[in-house]
């Protein structure tokens, strides 16, 4: 095994371990055996995947990019990895990341900074799943798993020219994924094309009883049926108004007729780089030319989403990280019996990096009795408002928030529709993934932590709401291109909860 002191480097530092010994899958549960038969043959492109190093794998370390777990070997494997393995996929390596997923540029890793594979000087690869993105971008694998709590799959995809998909919360099992902020953590998929994302999602989307937030097949089906009948009702209503919506089929795959795309006005911020604004506008124009209707929408609470995220995520993180004390978990630093009186402080002081310490301080403060009302509880309220903003503008109601809090069972779907807070407006939302093109690592060294946090302004709202989103690369017109920066910008398509496959389908049509 590679020691922490001698990490394997590939010039880009995308991997923490490449020496993964893929264990044989010897015993399958009856469900796994059925799934294996049903899903044969293995789709090409999924033979080898890279896995972010905060997702537990057998046969390699799982370090979370942290000094405190630099030697850690998990005794079990994450469900998401196992479900890929039972179909014959091997893990080709464990990818570098911001420590415990905290960061936006993959610069906060015990194993060093990840470098963007684009042929420009020293650009940030985005974070925290920067290693996964660079592994794909540099052709070392065709699909990589990352985690996305507030944008960590979408931002690296946007900075490296890839597709990065964050599923609805609960769609991919989190069992075996080292938690950062449990209420927002998701496993995401990065690939160079959207078809690979669909295939990978198909492999990993399954109910996992080990993850209490995993959507059961029954619930998934019920949500799907509710969504379909809501869609049908909506199509009938539109037809009555002469605003027919044709279903998108394989044959009509250039036809976006009747699809309503929301453009959130609040995302057109002053800090948005001109090239990105132009790419956004071009993207909307091309959709319009193909029949889509562009609808300006308002998400008024977006402006508070970032602050709410940076209260809630560190609060959850501070509580999650309390267990790394050198006694229960973590590389022990200090005398085992603690008689030197510094076991905790040395273990945590030397084991965690600066950004993680900052989050622990932030989270511990906002959860403290003097601050909890003004920070943590307020942020929870803002989170509800952000969720309501989305529910108000999507044409389809949120299947998780029916009008009444009890199980609707077979009750008329029209009751469900009453959770809508406003008129039916849009099927999807399109906005940039980030307000700027990737900064250089030198620029970053001059930024404050808050400057770094600002970068997540467009990705955190979907995370707070638990809804699916995908970042796709879109060309920037030549006159707006900036020297030394990529000629594409990440555009984000956001859908209503549980519309993951539809979101991918519309992306396939779009690209
Ligand atoms: N950049 C965000 C943060 O640091 C998001 C990280 C993530 O999605 N894991 O919290």
From TrEMBL:
Q: Which UniProt keywords apply?
A: ATP-binding, Ligase, Mitochondrion, Nucleotide-binding, Protein biosynthesis
State the protein's name.
Answer: Glutamyl-tRNA(Gln) amidotransferase subunit A, mitochondrial
What segment(s) does the record annotate as region Disordered? 209-246
* Free-text function comment from the UniProt entry: Allows the formation of correctly charged Gln-tRNA(Gln) through the transamidation of misacylated Glu-tRNA(Gln) in the mitochondria. The reaction takes place in the presence of glutamine and ATP through an activated gamma-phospho-Glu-tRNA(Gln).
Native organism: Hyaloscypha hepaticicola
**Could you tell me the EC number(s) of this protein?**
6.3.5.7
Quaternary structure and interacting proteins, as annotated = Subunit of the heterotrimeric GatCAB amidotransferase (AdT) complex, composed of A, B and C subunits.
The residue ranges flagged as biased composition, category Basic and acidic residues, are 218-246
Q: Which family does it belong to?
A: Belongs to the amidase family. GatA subfamily.
Kindly state a single biological-process term from the GO annotations of this entry: glutaminyl-tRNAGln biosynthesis via transamidation
């Amino acid at each position: 095994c590679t020691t922490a002191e001698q990490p394997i480097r590939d010039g880009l530092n995308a991997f923490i371990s490449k020496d993964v010994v893929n264990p044989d899958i010897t015993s399958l549960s009856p469900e796994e055996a059925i799934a294996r038969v049903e899903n044969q043959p293995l789709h090409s492109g999924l033979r080898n995947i890279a896995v972010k190093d905060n997702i537990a794998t057998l046969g390699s370390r799982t370090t979370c990019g942290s000094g405190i777990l630099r030697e850690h070997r998990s005794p079990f494997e994450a469900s998401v990895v196992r479900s890929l393995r039972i179909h014959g996929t091997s893990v080709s390596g464990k990818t570098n990341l911001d420590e415990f997923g905290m960061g936006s540029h993959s610069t906060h890793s015990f194993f060093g900074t990840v470098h963007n594979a684009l042929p420009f000087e020293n650009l940030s690869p985005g974070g925290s799943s920067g290693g996964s993105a660079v592994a794909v971008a540099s052709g070392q694998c065709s699909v990589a798993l990352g985690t996305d709590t507030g944008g960590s799959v979408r931002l690296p995809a946007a900075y490296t020219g890839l597709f990065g998909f964050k599923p609805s919360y609960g769609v991919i099992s989190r069992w075996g994924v080292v938690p950062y902020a449990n209420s927002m953590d998701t496993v995401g998929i990065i690939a160079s094309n959207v078809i690979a994302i669909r295939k990978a999602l198909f492999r990993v989307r399954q109910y996992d009883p080990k993850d209490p937030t995993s959507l059961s097949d029954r619930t998934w089906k019920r949500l799907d049926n509710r969504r379909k009948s809501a869609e049908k009702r909506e199509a009938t209503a539109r037809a009555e108004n002469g605003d027919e919506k044709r279903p998108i089929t394989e044959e009509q795959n250039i036809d976006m007729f009747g699809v309503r795309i929301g453009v959130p006005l609040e995302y057109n911020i002053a800090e948005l780089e001109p090239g990105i604004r132009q790419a956004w506008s071009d993207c909307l124009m091309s959709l319009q030319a193909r029949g889509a209707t562009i609808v300006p929408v308002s998400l008024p609470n977006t402006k508070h989403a970032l602050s709410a995220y940076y209260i809630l995520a560190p609060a959850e993180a501070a509580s999650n990280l309390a267990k790394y004390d050198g006694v229960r978990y973590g590389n022990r630093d200090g005398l085992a019996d603690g008689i030197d009186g510094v076991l905790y402080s040395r273990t945590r002081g030397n084991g965690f990096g600066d950004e993680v310490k900052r989050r622990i301080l932030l989270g511990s403060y906002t959860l403290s009795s003097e601050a909890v009302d003004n920070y943590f509880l307020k942020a929870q309220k803002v989170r509800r408002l952000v969720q309501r903003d989305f529910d108000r503008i999507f044409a389809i109601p949120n299947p998780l928030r029916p009008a009444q809090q009890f199980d609707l069972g077979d009750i008329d779907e029209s009751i469900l529709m009453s959770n809508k807070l406003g008129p039916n407006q849009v099927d999807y939302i399109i906005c940039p993934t980030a307000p700027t093109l990737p900064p250089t690592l030198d620029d970053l060294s001059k930024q404050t932590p808050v400057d770094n946090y600002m970068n997540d302004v467009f990705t955190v709202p979907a995370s707070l709401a638990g809804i699916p989103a995908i970042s796709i690369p879109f060309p920037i017109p030549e006159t707006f291109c900036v020297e030394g920066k990529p000629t594409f910008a990440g555009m984000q398509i956001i859908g209503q909860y549980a519309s993951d496959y539809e979101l991918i389908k519309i992306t396939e049509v779009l690209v």
